[in-house]
Design a protein that fits this description.
Elements lengths: L1 H15 L3 H32 L8 H53 L3 H5 L3 H43 L1 H48 L1 H6 L3 H53 L5 H42 L21 E9 L5 E10 L4 E5 L6 H8 L7 E6 L2 E2 L5 H6 L1 E4 L10 H6 L7 H10 L3 H4 L19 H15 L3 E5 L7 H15 L3 E5 L11 E6 L2 E6 L1 H5 L4 H12 L3
Parallel strand pairs: 3-8, 3-9, 6-7, 7-8
Antiparallel strand pairs: 1-2, 1-4, 4-5, 9-10
Helix pairs in contact: 1-9, 2-3, 2-5, 2-9, 3-5, 5-6, 5-9, 6-8, 6-9, 8-9, 13-15, 15-16
Length: about 600
């Protein structure tokens, strides 16, 4: 935890030092404002010393000007303090939100640079909460450091300096008490931190479970699993409750110890002060000064326990996101990565081997070459490794061995951005943004005009359902495109690919969610889209692959057959068997 806490502070400082001028202005203003709060009670002491002289009415004429002088000094210092606190506040109003905004951008950028595989093992709701916790932690930690801890240090040190100057014995008593108080508080806080870490982890589990059930709310209804999920959620919430109560109970114990310490200090200080008063060493003004300082010390040191615990709790909340920010990206550009230059759009899988983490190899010594403008269909049972090959081509994962080449360029040696700019994908299950249809289609090429977007949509036969919508292309599609049918989402994905117009095209079950009539229309659009492009097509419906230049049959991550549709039908193999099942097996 200490290492993670150090890393958290480093991340906060890296973002804060971009605005060092504002940071140091805040600190200087707070120090000056706090010092005034320590100095002013000295003049209150002098004021009451003069007031307590017990002079006659005639003598009051002489001391009133002195009393007024002290009042003006006190008001002057109060005004200075007011100015310093306003400077600190308004400077902070720029500083903190600016740093928090930059932290948000850093999290967004770093998170999206993680590989595809990273997100397959993470809950969306959990990741969002972790980012929000990190941003909130900066605000709370920064507030704690300079509004609380810095003020406390300045006040306590200032008070000790004054006390050692006026009453050395009381100064030593307060110094010893403060050291003992802080040591005990620190020890208790470290134990409290361990409890807070477990509470934060439990909170993440609750958020993740909630997000998972909301995402799968249709399954919960279809399988009448609400009571089952409620029990699962209650178990997580109940664990969180138990850990939270344990943490809060310990908090209350710490406060009880603090309260006892403060009662003891106040008794000792005033016992000593009374003895000094008996010996005429101090006067009424000194009691006012001591009481004012006691109130300030109790106020500051009572809060310091809470502040430190709150800081550590927020650091614990930030820990999970900090670990993500310090997790190296699995797929990243090499330092000398160059732009991919595509002229022929030839694709070559050169003796590649790939295995997901801790799993057996999905492909082993796999070789496949797509010539310029060639249309190649990938055929095979589910789990044969077809979609994995697409993921490797997009470099969502890096191959374990071998290389994938585009026009002779190893895709590991080019930037991921330029690689993906040259490949269009129509996936089996397109996921859309909760934005308008216009924005979702324009995602294929962000600088496209509205007319270009509409033309691509018409070519993908999107206009047939768009025209029925009240807001047409300005209709919002819902989270993940839930307001559209599967076939409508696929047509949007096809429109994106048409608009992108990349030289390499990948169709992964691109017509799986279409009815026969719509599929007939889309096949025409896809034929135009594939024209002149190097195309890799994955489809279980073999009828959609008959027009491919070449079919490649994959089994257990290896090529077992290759040839045209007619050639493969003549062979007694996997393809012939699959074709037989689809062409007439179900009828028979």
């Amino acid at each position: 935890m200490k290492q993670v806490t150090k890393q958290t502070y480093q991340i906060f400082w890296q973002h804060a030092q971009k605005y060092k001028g504002f940071f140091w202005t805040i600190l200087l203003a707070i120090v000056l404002g706090s010092l005034v709060g320590t100095i002013n009670p000295i003049f209150f002491k002098k004021f009451f010393d003069v007031l307590a002289q017990g002079v006659s009415t005639d003598d009051m004429v002489g001391i009133v000007p002195e009393l007024k002088r002290y009042i003006f000094i006190i008001i002057g210092f109060e005004a200075l303090s007011w100015v310093m606190w306003r400077v600190a506040t308004f400077t902070n109003n720029y500083f903190q939100p600016r740093v928090m905004a930059n932290l948000s951008n850093t999290c967004f950028d770093y998170l999206h640079h993680h590989s595809f595989g990273f997100f397959t093992n993470k809950f969306v709701g959990s990741l969002v909460r972790k980012i929000n916790r990190l941003i909130g932690a900066f605000e709370m930690v920064a507030d704690s450091l300079y509004w609380n801890l810095l003020v406390t240090v300045v006040r306590v040190v200032g008070i000790l300096v004054v006390l050692f100057n006026y009453y050395p014995v009381i100064g030593f008593i307060l110094l010893g008490w403060a050291i003992l108080y802080l040591i005990i508080n620190y020890k208790l806080t470290l134990h409290k931190l361990k409890l807070d870490v477990t509470v934060a982890a439990a909170d993440t589990k609750v958020a993740a479970y909630l997000a998972d059930t909301i995402t799968n709310n249709a399954n919960v209804k279809i399988f009448t699993a609400l009571e089952y999920e409620k029990r699962g959620f209650w178990e997580k919430v109940n664990d969180q409750y138990k850990l939270t109560k344990k943490s809060w109970d310990f908090d209350a114990t710490i406060e009880a110890v603090q309260g006892a310490f403060m009662i003891a200090l106040e008794f000792i200080i005033f016992w000593v002060a009374i003895n000094m008063w008996q010996k005429s060493l101090i006067g009424v003004g000194d009691f006012v000064l001591l009481q004012t300082y006691m109130i300030q010390i109790f106020e500051r040191l009572w809060d310091i326990g809470r502040v430190i615990r709150r800081m550590y709790r927020n650091l614990a909340d930030a820990e999970e996101m900090v670990e993500i920010l310090n997790t190296e990206h699995q797929v990243k550009d090499t330092p000398d990565a160059r732009e991919l230059i595509v002229s022929k759009a030839e694709v070559k899988f050169d003796n590649i081997t790939f295995a997901y983490k801790n799993n057996l190899a999905v492909t082993s010594n796999f070789n496949l070459e797509l010539k310029s403008g060639e249309k190649v269909g990938l055929v095979g049972h589910s789990g044969a490794g077809k979609t994995t090959l697409v993921s490797l081509l997009f470099r969502f994962y890096d191959v374990t061995q071998g290389a994938i080449l585009i026009d002779g360029q190893n895709i590991k040696d080019v930037t991921q951005e330029s690689l993906r700019q040259n490949i269009s994908l129509v996936p089996q299950d397109p996921i859309l943004f909760h934005r308008s249809l216009m924005e979702n289609i324009r995602y294929g090429r962000r600088d496209a005009t509205d007319q270009e977007v509409i033309l691509a949509a018409e070519q993908a036969h999107c206009n047939e359902f768009v025209e029925r919508l009240p807001e047409k292309y300005q209709t919002f599609v819902g989270e993940r495109g839930i307001k559209l049918s599967g076939g409508e989402r696929q047509r949007i994905a096809i429109a994106r690919a048409i608009l992108k117009n990349a030289p390499i095209l990948v169709l992964d079950e691109a017509t799986s969610s279409l009815d026969s009539q719509t599929e007939f229309l889309i096949q025409d659009a896809l034929a135009k889209l594939m024209k002149g492009k190097t195309t890799l097509v994955i489809a279980h419906r073999l009828s959609t692959l008959r027009q491919m230049d070449r079919l490649v049959v994959v089994k257990d991550g290896a090529i077992v057959e290759a040839g045209s549709h007619d050639e493969l039908l003549k062979q007694s193999g996997v393809y012939q068997n699959l074709w037989g099942l689809q062409a007439g097996g179900f009828i028979s």
